């Protein structure tokens, strides 16, 4: 019996060896075919990613502006051409950043996805501000960030209310005031932190030495910036952890969007992450071109730096948010439109602006919160106008008309303000002609 069992074991052993050798021979014979198959699969995945990331937006027609901007910079074309191509190239990149963060959120969950959206939502404005700060162009930093706030509050929200009101003219559009009230509180806190350095300078500058005013303004601005960053961190915790229900869509919106919410990510996590890095690097490159050529474009076009920084740059940077907010308003989903416009404005006011002040403190650039009288006044009246517009929780197209006209009035003011304007930074970093 033991002899028979040994034969059986040997038989099984040799059968396994024979199968293993056959598998090895098969693998050797088909290794080349398998490598070709893997290459084909990688190529297919790459083409799918390119289709989703590059061609998956209507702004894909502007992607050729990116290599044109690089060529214009490399071959030393006229600097206004480099500025124009760079500005156009930033529009699709900003929209794709938002798309990629949404794809990553499918894998990380809503909390991390929300934090990622909060961080990358205004990546274009932040990167432009950082490059301008390193080049000590404080006026570009202040004007571009202020313009982004005004653009979201007046242009993006105003056009959304206008289009939504016309599309739903026979029904009353309503929204949840709680979310709007929270964002309004943040904007008012940011306005207070902006007004204090301005009022301090105007009240004390004639009486004391200018150097003392500068030192005090910087200290006051840095303390105010720290308060704003703490408030924004508390807002994120409030939004993403303790009171998430206040920022979620209504039940009807959830039911209507159930299919879209259940959809899986169209590209993988690592592909999204890699594309996010590529897009961010490209934005950084174009932002450097924009900051370096903005004065040349101003002189060539006869348009002030203030108008370009405050109007043109934010319109390009907020193009994706603008389109998305209008689409939601047309579908009578004002809560989402308000979340897009007010959320972005609050983020820039309470996070990006104070972050630039702290970064300037670290690198030795005297960046403060004194945006001068005209700029701070425009911001103050815009926030007050928004507060009155949203106070009753209803909307119609007339409110959108008022907000859009207010934006046009502010744009006209900065268009005629010193044409072309020649801005120099005084010792306090405030904006002067």
TrEMBL record:
Q: Where are the transmembrane segments?
A: 53-75, 81-100, 112-134, 146-169, 181-200, 220-238, 267-289, 301-320, 340-365, 371-390, 397-417
Instruction: Please give the InterPro entries that the UniProt record associates with this protein.
Output: CaH_exchang (IPR004713), CAX-like (IPR004798), NaCa_Exmemb (IPR004837), NCX_ion-bd_dom_sf (IPR044880)
Provide the protein name: Vacuolar cation/proton exchanger
Topological category with respect to the lipid bilayer = Multi-pass membrane protein
**Keyword Transmembrane set for record:** yes
Q: What PANTHER family does this protein map onto?
A: VACUOLAR CALCIUM ION TRANSPORTER (PTHR31503), VACUOLAR CATION_PROTON EXCHANGER (PTHR31503:SF42)
A GO molecular function assigned to this protein is: calcium:proton antiporter activity
Cellular compartments annotated: Vacuole membrane
Domain Sodium/calcium exchanger membrane region: start-end pairs: 81-240, 272-415
The cross-references to Gene3D superfamilies, in alphabetical order and at most eight, read: NCX, central ion-binding region
* Role this protein plays: Vacuolar cation/proton exchanger (CAX). Translocates Ca(2+) and other metal ions into vacuoles using the proton gradient formed by H(+)-ATPase and H(+)-pyrophosphatase.
Query: What does the entry list under GO cellular component?
Result: calcium:proton antiporter complex; plant-type vacuole membrane
One Gene Ontology BP term is: regulation of stomatal movement
């Amino acid at each position: 019996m033991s002899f028979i069992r040994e034969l059986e074991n040997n038989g099984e052993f040799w059968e396994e060896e024979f199968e293993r050798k056959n598998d090895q021979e098969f693998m050797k014979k088909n290794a080349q075919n398998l490598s070709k198959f893997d290459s084909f699969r990688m190529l297919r995945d790459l083409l799918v990613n390119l289709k989703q990331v590059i061609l998956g937006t209507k702004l894909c027609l502007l992607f050729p502006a990116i290599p044109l901007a690089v060529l214009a910079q490399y071959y030393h074309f006229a600097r206004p051409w480099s500025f124009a191509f760079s500005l156009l190239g930033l529009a699709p990149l900003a929209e794709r950043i938002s798309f990629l963060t949404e794809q990553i959120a499918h894998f990380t969950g809503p909390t991390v996805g929300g934090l990622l959206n909060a961080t990358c939502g205004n990546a274009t404005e932040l990167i432009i501000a950082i490059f301008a700060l390193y080049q000590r162009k404080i006026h570009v930093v202040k004007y571009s960030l202020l313009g982004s706030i005004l653009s979201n509050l007046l242009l993006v929200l105003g056009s959304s209310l206008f289009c939504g009101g016309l599309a739903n003219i026979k029904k009353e559009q309503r929204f949840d005031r709680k979310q709007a009230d929270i964002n309004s509180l943040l904007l008012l806190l940011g306005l207070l932190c902006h007004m204090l350095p301005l009022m301090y300078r105007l009240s004390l500058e004639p009486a004391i030495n200018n150097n003392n005013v500068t030192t005090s303004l910087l200290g006051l601005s840095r303390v105010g910036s720290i308060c704003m960053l703490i408030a924004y961190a508390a807002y994120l915790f409030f939004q993403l952890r303790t009171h998430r229900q206040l920022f979620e869509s209504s039940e009807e919106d959830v039911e209507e969007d159930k299919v879209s919410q259940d959809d899986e990510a169209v590209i993988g996590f690592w592909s999204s992450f890699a594309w996010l890095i590529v897009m961010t690097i490209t934005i950084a490159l174009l932002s450097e071109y924009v900051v370096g050529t903005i004065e040349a474009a101003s002189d060539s076009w006869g348009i002030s730096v203030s108008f370009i920084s405050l109007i043109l740059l934010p319109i390009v940077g907020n193009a994706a948010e603008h389109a998305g907010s209008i689409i939601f308003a047309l579908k009578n989903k004002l809560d989402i439109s308000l979340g897009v416009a007010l959320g972005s404005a609050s983020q820039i006011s309470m996070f990006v602006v104070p972050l630039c002040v702290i970064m300037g403190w670290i690198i030795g650039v005297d960046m403060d919160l004194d945006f001068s009288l005209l700029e701070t006044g425009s911001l103050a009246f815009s926030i007050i106008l928004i507060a009155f517009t949203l106070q009753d929780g209803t909307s119609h197209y007339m409110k959108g008309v008022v907000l859009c006209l207010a934006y046009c009035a502010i744009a006209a003011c900065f268009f005629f303000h010193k044409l072309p304007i020649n801005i120099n930074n005084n010792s306090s970093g405030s904006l002067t002609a």
